[in-house]
Amino acid sequence: MAVKAFSNEWAKAFKDELNKSATYKTAGKGWKWTVGLVVEAEPDKHFPEAKGIVLDLFDGEARDVTVGPASEAQKSDFVITAPYSRWKEVATKQLDATKGMLQGKLKLKGDLPTIVRYTKASQEMTECTTRIPVEWPDEK
Amino acid sequence: MDVDSRALVGYDDDEPSAFASMLGGLIEANVRSHPEKERDFESLKARVGIWVTDIDEGVTLDFKGGKLVVHNGLKPRRTLTIRTDADTVMSLSNLKIGLFGLPVYYDEVGRGVAFKLLQGKLRIEGLLPNVMTLNTVTRIFSVQ
Predict the structure, then answer these.
(1) CB atoms B18 and A99 under 8 Å
(2) Under CATH, to which class is B9-141 assigned?
(3) Quick check: A103 and B29 CB within 8 A?
(4) To the nearest whole angstrom, how far is the Cα of A108 from the nearest Cα of chain B?
(5) pTM for the full model?
(6) A3-127 has which fold?
């Protein structure tokens, strides 16, 4: 069943997908930092308020994924920021996250060598979002 | 002046591209945190172009012996030019450095890079006369 984009149900589904992924478990070994995803508001796409997703990731496991205000996500060790429609492109495989970061479509804050070292884990995280059936607010 | 107290990376453009900022930031962080990369950075004088084929964007890294100037796009008089896709750029920065400071091409990441080279999906212009320069750039660029 589809879940609402960037809702608590979506966060739970994302956590489950991460913990089901053998690829993420291997590629994320040694990771010990929090990741914040900031989804900027786009009122014309029926996404009126920014949201923040905080991923508590540790050693290849997703310990928690929560949705809250953008300000919470901005406190994370690594923060990736993009408007709602960009995140939708990532989650629907229209935008590769690596390319998006190199093009500045997804803005990254945090220690670059660390995130580059975990490229494979980041790519699998993106893959996990694409496996969640989502109800997009601009497609109602 | 040591690397802790001086600017290592400058940008030629008023608005560096995201790719330019990312590479400049990556190299600066690498050099500041690894003394062996600092030695390479201090000695390297070369103009290295990197063109990412699947986003149609590139940069020129102008290493000036202890200072790097990053340009948006490819500039003339390059020593080496690397043309490949975004994933391979990431793989290049994940190459391990082995014995004698040489990049490791026999582990999973290294084999992937070597295979792209054989397939023609990674092209390095100016390679033959500049193998040592490529190795030095790889050491500075690698996060491993």
Answers:
(1) no
(2) alpha beta
(3) no
(4) 9
(5) 0.90
(6) Nonspecific Lipid-transfer Protein; Chain A (3.30.1050)
